[in-house]
Write a structure and sequence with these properties.
The protein is mainly α. The chain is about 55% helix and about 5% strand. The protein is elongated and about 50 Å long.
Length: about 110
């Protein structure tokens, strides 16, 4: 038995796309696998790859901010927590500037 793991969308709102919330037998699904265009294009994947260092830095910054919030409820952040936040902010700033300085052909997101 093959299952379809789509998500439901209102057909009228989404231009007739039909997806399922729960698994169903594939032959019951009105969309064939060839009709689905949910995968990113090669251009989009390239853009994500170019921007990945910045995305990773932003995730590190978010993690540092969450650590500070958690520490506030448990005696306050340590000097190491503040240092981690400052370093994460500096890394995001540096990588954003590097990405902005690249030629436009490398910055476009599909």
């Amino acid at each position: 038995m093959v299952l379809c793991w789509c998500t439901p969308l209102n057909d009228a709102v989404k231009g007739g796309e039909h997806r399922h919330l729960f698994p169903i037998i594939a032959k019951e699904c009105v969309l064939r696998a060839a009709d689905r265009k949910f995968d990113p294009s090669p251009e989009a994947l390239s853009a994500i790859e170019v921007e990945w260092p910045l995305i990773e830095a932003e995730l590190s910054l978010l993690d540092a901010e969450i650590t500070l919030i958690h520490a506030a409820d448990h005696g306050g952040p340590s000097p190491l927590d503040w240092r981690r936040l400052r370093r994460a902010e500096a890394r995001v700033t540096r990588l954003a500037a590097d990405l902005a300085a690249r030629p436009a052909a490398f910055r476009e997101v599909a």
